[in-house]
């Protein structure tokens, strides 16, 4: 069987790692200077190189003569460590083994000296999956590790780790990789595999990766399997982007305000393996194509099979509606990415568009806030009124009233705010490079859409538990300082997007004694800047 590209092209030296320059420089410097710490935490988005770097680093610190901080691959130790049965670099996947027994065994074994190199390295992947008793056992070792032991903990979800563990590790936050870097890599791999591809097709693949190298390579794999002479059109077809018949039907259903059909089609697309954010993305791209068709008469729809469908749809809708459509989906995008039930977010976004019939949709200039669906509405199908329900035709006006009551609040749409993004940029820069070596991933991961200047309030919208480290007192103090330096009297405000008491109380705890305003998931100010 053919090896997946992402396996075949897993980098074996730091030179092969893309898009993580700061991390690579820091790690290779440590190797050059022989200044190795005893515990590392590699965190950040999926498929950005955490496990790969952990493996490279583990070999590099043991290599007899590292080259530019990477393992030479030739010395006895390097050779010994490539064998999966070696006893010096031990990898454990906490996702499949969260047992405290394993960690206990680990604690018994750490005292044995390494057999070939200088260090015994324990790579614990998906470390957030360890049970709390396993964490406790691990903590004891982290407190007093033997000199020859190095731990590398990897996770996408650092906020799930106990603070006691976090504080003992040197933390590295892996960034999403820029599209251009992904493009260069995928181009190199196509060349290496002797596969031809149009440049536009390669860019398309890189874009679909959305910052994850692994995802990019998986998409590349699918495209390469389809043809060894990949055209853009074929790439679109293989990846289901640029408008498929199903996307066209779904948009059609929204235009016709056919709720039953919307739910059915979302279901159908999702069970065909499309991720919710992909569906949303495809819809947006298709709607944009339709706008072009209406505005300029040019049909940019790439796949021939739906050209006619696009023409037909274009004749039944208008620019106002499409602008609204794109805006609503854009607003739902961040929510889709971070929600635990992304499908409900998408469904309610689409259904909310049915509330106003297409031809009476408000003018384009209307503030987006009135058009964005509330994320908190319970399953969309029960709350959406006045539209055609194939399944339950009786629920109409009455459910309309009910839905308004049920809505806890209209969630502000998450759209980029240029000024706030600029300030956030300052915050990111400063905190990423401050002298204490503080690297705070959540600042990096916090999407631009989640900050907004409202009057003099610098509002950070937090969702789920994912930005909790953002609200650690030290971080907040730093943020406050940066805001103060702007001299514009900005008031820092933290606002929850969803209700739920547990995270809220953690946020409140973290913000004690700080001049930060806090707004809960129902839009209520629960603490003012004192
Ligand atoms: N920064 C990178 N440079 C080059 N290749 C990369 C990079 N990140 C990931 N890859 C590719 O993606 C594959 C998966 O990467 P890796 O396992 O290191 O990601 P990860 O960050 O640990 O992901 P996860 O969070 O899902 O565990 C690798 O085999 C490699 O082919
Ligand atoms: Mg990994
Ligand atoms: Zn070596």
Kindly describe this structure.
This protein has 530 residues and is α/β, with parallel strands linked by helices. The protein folds into 4 domains: 5-174, P-loop containing nucleotide triphosphate hydrolases (Rossmann fold); 179-239, Orthogonal Bundle (Helicase, Ruva Protein, domain 3); 245-406, Up-down Bundle (Zinc Finger, Delta Prime, domain 3), CATH 1.20.272.10; 418-527, no CATH class. 48% of the residues lie in helices and 10% in strands. It has 23 helices and 12 strands. The strands form 3 sheets. A 5-stranded parallel sheet has the order 2-3-4-1-5. Strands 8-9-10-11-12 form a 5-stranded mixed sheet. The chain binds adenosine-5'-triphosphate, magnesium ion (MG) and zinc ion (ZN). Magnesium ion (MG) binds at residues 50-51, 125, 154.
Lay out the secondary structure:
Elements lengths: L4 H4 L12 H13 L5 E6 L5 H11 L15 H7 L6 E5 L6 H10 L10 E6 L6 H12 L5 E7 L7 H4 L3 E5 L4 H14 L3 E2 L1 H10 L4 H14 L2 E2 L1 H8 L5 H11 L3 H13 L4 H21 L10 H10 L2 H20 L3 H14 L24 H4 L13 H10 L11 H15 L8 H5 L5 E4 L2 E6 L10 H13 L5 E6 L4 H10 L6 E3 L5 E3 L3
Parallel strand pairs: 1-4, 1-5, 2-3, 3-4, 6-7, 9-10, 10-11
Antiparallel strand pairs: 8-9, 11-12
Helix pairs in contact: 5-6, 8-9, 9-10, 9-11, 10-11, 12-13, 12-14, 12-15, 13-17, 14-15, 14-16, 16-17, 20-22
The protein binds adenosine-5'-triphosphate, magnesium ion and zinc ion (ZN).
The site of adenosine-5'-triphosphate has 24 residues, from α1, α3 and α10.
């Amino acid at each position: 069987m053919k090896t997946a590209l992402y396996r075949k092209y897993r980098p074996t030296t730091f030179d092969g790692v893309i898009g993580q320059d700061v991390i690579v420089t820091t790690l290779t410097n440590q190797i050059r200077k022989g200044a190795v710490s005893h515990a590392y935490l590699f965190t950040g988005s999926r498929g950005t190189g955490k496990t790969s770097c952990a493996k490279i680093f583990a070999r590099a610190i043991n290599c007899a003569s590292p080259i530019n901080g990477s393992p030479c691959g030739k010395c006895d130790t390097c050779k010994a460590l490539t064998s999966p049965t070696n006893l010096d670099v031990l990898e454990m996947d906490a996702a499949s083994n969260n047992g405290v027994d394993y960690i206990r065994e680990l604690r018994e074994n750490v005292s044995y000296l390494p057999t070939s190199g200088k260090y015994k390295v324990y790579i614990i992947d998906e470390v957030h999956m360890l049970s709390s008793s396993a964490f406790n056992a691990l903590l004891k070792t982290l407190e007093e590790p033997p000199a020859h032991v190095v731990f590398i903990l990897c996770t996408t979800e650092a906020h799930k780790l106990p603070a006691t563990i976090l504080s003992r590790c040197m933390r590295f936050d892996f960034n999403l990789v820029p599209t251009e870097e992904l493009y260069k890599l995928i181009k190199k791999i196509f060349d290496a595999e002797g596969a031809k591809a149009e440049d536009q097709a390669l860019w398309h693949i890189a874009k679909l990766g959305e910052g994850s190298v692994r995802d990019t390579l998986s998409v590349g794999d699918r495209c390469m399997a389809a043809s060894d002479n990949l055209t853009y059109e074929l790439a679109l077809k293989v990846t289901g982007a640029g408008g498929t018949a199903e996307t066209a039907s779904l948009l059609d259903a929204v235009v016709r305000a056919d709720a039953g059909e919307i739910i059915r089609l979302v279901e159908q697309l999702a069970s065909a393996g499309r991720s919710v954010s992909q569906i949303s993305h495809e819809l947006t791209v298709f709607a944009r194509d339709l706008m072009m068709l209406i505005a300029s008469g040019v049909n940019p729809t790439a796949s021939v099979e739906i050209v006619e469908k696009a023409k037909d749809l274009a004749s039944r809708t208008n620019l106002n509606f499409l602008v609204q459509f794109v805006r609503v989906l854009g607003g739902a995008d961040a929510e889709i990415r971070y929600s635990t039930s992304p499908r409900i977010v998408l469904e309610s976004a689409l259904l909310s568009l049915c509330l106003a019939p297409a031809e009476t949709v408000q003018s384009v200039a209307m503030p987006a806030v009135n058009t964005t669906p509330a994320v908190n509405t319970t399953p969309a199908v029960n709350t959406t009124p006045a539209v055609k329900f194939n399944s339950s035709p009786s629920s109409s006006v009455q459910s309309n009233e009910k839905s308004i009551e049920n809505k806890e609040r209209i969630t502000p749409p998450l759209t980029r705010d240029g000024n706030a993004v600029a300030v956030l940029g300052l915050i990111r820069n400063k905190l990423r490079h401050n002298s204490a070596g503080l690297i705070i991933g959540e600042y990096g991961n916090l999407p631009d859409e989640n900050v907004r200047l409202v009057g003099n309030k610098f509002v950070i919208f937090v969702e789920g538990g994912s930005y909790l480290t953002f609200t650690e007192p030290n971080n907040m103090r730093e943020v406050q300082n940066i805001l103060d330096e702007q001299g514009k009297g900005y008031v820092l405000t933290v606002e929850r997007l969803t209700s739920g008491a547990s995270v809220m109380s953690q946020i409140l705890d973290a913000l004690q004694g700080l001049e930060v305003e806090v707004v809960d998931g129902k839009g209520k100010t629960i603490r003012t800047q004192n």
